[in-house]
Structure formats: structure tokens, C-alpha cells
Amino acid sequence: MTVRVLTGITTTGTPHLGNYAGAIRPAIAASRDPGAESFFFLADYHALVKADDPRRVARSRLEIAATWLACGLDPQRVTFYRQSDIVEIPQLTWLLTCVTAKGLLNRAHAYKAAVDKNVADGEDPDSGINAGLYMYPVLMAADILAFGAHRVPVGRDQIQHIEMARDLGQRFNHLYGDAWRQATGRDGEPLVLPEVQIDENVATLPGLDGRKMSKSYDNTIPLFAPSAELKRLVMSIVTDSRAPGEPKDTEGSALFQLYQAFATPAQAAEMRHAYAEGIGWGDAKQRLFALVDETVAPMREQYARLIARPAQLEEILQEGARKAREVTVPLLDGLQRAVGLGPFSVPAIAAGASTQDAAVRLPQFKQYREADGRFHFKLVDGEGRLLLQGDGHASPRDCGQVVARLKREGRDALHEMEARAVGLLGERIGTLGEGLAGVDGIREALRQLAEVAE
Ligand code: TRP
Q1: Residue 209 CB-density burial (10 A; 0-12 exposed, 13-18 middle, 19+ buried)
Q2: 18-39 tens-digit pLDDT
Q3: Ligand 1 contacts CB of residue 133 (under 6 A)
Q4: Which residue lies with its CA nearest to atom 6 of ligand 1?
Q5: For atom 12 of ligand 1, which residue has the closest CA?
Q6: Which atom of ligand 1 sits closest to the CA of residue 153?
Q7: Which H or E run includes 286?
Q8: pTM of the entire predicted model
């Protein structure tokens, strides 16, 4: 069985070298594994939790889509889409919301941190907190559960979210598993419980000031900064005060760590040697700039081409959404019916149910020959109770014709005659069963049969 791997990309900010080495590059490499079926998406509904400037939201998702493609994501091989194109995600979000304990959401890290900060500042605990932040884990659970993902590669800060997705999935399965099996005729559980995947080998890059490269520290090097800007930023990386000719430590050197993240092992060994030999910081920075510039140049060009053609990007993402919905539409159909929603016209047990299940539960006509040699029919309901006992006929053909007329006209033209006899347009065809359903019960059964026949 192939493993279904899914991950969401938050569409805020401009991607930097740290995002590239720590997330983009390893994710794309992993997507080439033939044993994995990958789903990557732009978490643009999540972006609304924090952003309220529509132009920035729009710009960021376009930039991030172009970035992943420019970095080598192959949309033929990976299902690449926007969260907001998959309407089944917000649908599932609501189904999950209704099985989510409010207390569970109270304990989510991001919400709790916001509350704690308010309390520390002497504010109302929920001051300035929107319900989107509160619901964030449920939307994320829906992202994952809507695709039956087995594995979710994320950073450590997301572990709690994956655990919550498992919790919600388990709760849903527990409450609705039986109904789902009945509605769909399938075995197993409606929702797959995902496993978190933390890649221990992935680099966290230092930023210009030596702390972790992060937008919140304002110490980033944008992935697709123009060459001159890249050079300027690399030259501003902090170093110690050792002069050229003095041996330098690679340990704890942000410059060296950045170099290593883009170097082959041989290049890294060479740089280590140059450090020991006392390379000047200016020279070392020049080498780092050259290496990074050479690595990103082809991607930067591709990025520029993509960003200039939004219509082409749109087409790629529409195709991704189409592939994605091949998974989510049937899944949601089953889940909706499991909770008691879905179309009236599809009896929960008929669509998708095995023929055996359907036969047990739908009303049925039975035709047979009695001891007197005449041909009879009867209509029984899903539980096998007699609704109508047909009169006898000389031939099976005559008997079959009455059944056919009943199916065709019975819903409109059936009526009760004296002594529990049943008539069709004034002509007696049989007698009512023992139950209380009467002629209405027969009409209801005919209606159900007509619907499945459609
Ligand atoms: N919350 C994730 C982050 O900040 C992004 C995300 C949204 C995600 N939905 C997801 C990741 C589903 C994995 C699976 O990084």
C-alpha cells in the first residue's frame, strides 16, 4: 500500500533560506519517493486567522505557490492545491466542530499563549482573540482527515495539532462509525488517524544575527532576493572579530552553518579547512554568497517566469483541486450520510451499500406459485413484514403485469376498498398486510423502490 503523505504550507510572509533548507527542499525530495502519494496544499484559510489585509493575503499565496513550483515541486506527481478550493474541508470542519470538546480547544498552545499574554497584561483573557485562532486546530484536523492522510510531516511546534487531529478523528469514528458502515456498506473506520512525522535531520538555519532564521526576529535572507540584495545581506552576517590569518571556529559559526546547508560534503570539508587556515571573514562571505547565488539562480529565474503568468499558475492549482476532490467528494458524501445528512432521495442504506445490505433493508416484491397452481405476488417492507398480499393469477405473465403497473402507477392510483381489499384504479389487486401501515405503507415502499431504480 502506498503511504499517503500530506502537509500544509502557511501562506504568510516571503519564503527565506531557512524555509527552503528546513521545509521546502526536504519536502520536495520526499515527494519523489515512489512509495509515497503526496498532497501539498496552501493553507490559505489558515492565513486569514492572522492576516486582515486582502492584498497581502493574495500576494503571499501567489508567491508561495510560485516558490514551491520553482523549487522543483512536480504537480504531475504531487497533488498540489489551495485549501480554499476544496469546499469539503470547511464542511468537514463543521462535522468535527460538533464532536469537539470545547475544553480541548481551550488547551491548544497557540490559543492558550494568547490568553496567558492577555492575563499577564491585565486584559480580559479573550481580548483581541478571534474565534479563528480558537478553531485553528479543528480546521487543521479537517485538512488532514479529509484526505485519509497516513503521515503528516511538520515542525515540532505542530505536534499538538496532529495529536488533536487524531483525537477528533477517533471521536468521530467512535460516534459515527456504525452509521457510516451502514450508510456506505464499507468496513473499517470512516476517518484515518494520522501519524506525525518529525524529520530530525532537517537543518534549522541561523539568520543574520546568529539566532534561528525567522520572520519574527527580522533576521532573514529572502530565498529569491535579487543577486545584489543577496550579496548585501550575506555581507551583513555577524561574525566574531578575528582577523584574516587567525584560525576560526566552524562550531557556532552562523556563516559556516549556512554554507554547509548548501554545500556538498567535499565543499563543506574544504571550507572547514579554510577556517582552520585563517580565511578572512570577507572571503568566507564571498564564498557563501557565490554558493547560494549559484544554487538559487535557476530557481529564481523560474520563479520570475511563474509569477509573471498568474493564469498558468491558476491552471496548475485548478488541476490540483480537481485531483484533490476526487478524494474528498466521496469521503464527505459518506460522512454526511453517516451523521444523518445527505440527499433525501438516497435512502442512507441504498447508495454504495453492498447488494446484500440493500436487499435486506429495501422493500421487495416476491412472486411465487401457490399450491392451488395460481401465481401470486406479495410486497414486504425492509424488515420483511407483509404490506400487500396480491391476488392469484393464471399465468406468471399476468401476475408480473400487475406488479409492473403497481410500480408505475401505484403511488398515485392505489386505494383501499372494502374489507381491507386494495384497488388500483378501481380494480381489485389484493389485500392489505396485517400491519398498521395500510395503503400509505405500500405507497411509501413503492416510492423507495422508484428512487433506487432511478
Ligand atoms: N499549521 C501548519 C503550520 O503552521 C500549517 C498547516 C495547516 C498544516 N494545515 C495543515 C500542516 C495540515 C500539516 C497538515 O505550519
Answers
A1: middle
A2: 999 999 999 999 999 999 999 9
A3: no
A4: 8
A5: 8
A6: 13
A7: helix 281-307
A8: 0.75
- Indicate the range of 75-84, 311-320, 321-330, 411-420 predicted with least confidence: 411-420
Distance CA(153)–CA(381), nearest Å, equals 51
Which CA distances in Å does 448 have to 165, 290, 302, 353, 371? 38, 73, 58, 15, 31
Mean pLDDT of all residues belonging to the chain: 92
Predicted pLDDT of residue 350: 46
Q: pLDDT at position 294, please? A: 97
Residue 90: pLDDT above 60?
yes
- What are the structural domains of the chain? 3-203+309-338 (3.40.50.620), 224-302 (1.10.240.10), 361-453 (2.30.29.80)
Task: Using pLDDT thresholds of 50, 70 and 90, give the confidence band for residue 70.
Answer: very high
Tell the residue nearest (CA) to atom 10 of ligand 1. 8
Residue 346 pLDDT class (50, 70, 90 cuts): low
Q: How far, in Å, from the CA of 187 to the mean position of ligand 1?
A: 30
Widest pairwise Cα distance in the chain: 116
Residue labelled with grid coordinates 478523528: 169
Among 82, 83, 140, smallest CA distance to 109 is for 140
Grid cell 523549487 is found at: 71
pLDDT at 375: 92
Q: Of the residues 4, 10, 193, which should be mutated to test ligand 1's pocket, given the most ligand atoms within 8 Å of the CB?
A: 10
At a CB cut-off of 8 Å and minimum separation 6, what does 180 contact?
186, 189, 190, 334, 335, 337, 338
pLDDT value of residue 348: 52
Sheet holding 427-432, edge to edge: 364-369, 375-380, 386-390, 427-432, 421-424, 414-416
Q: How far is the CA of 144 from the centre of ligand 1 (A)?
A: 9
Q: From ligand 1's centre to the CA of 137, what distance in Å?
A: 9
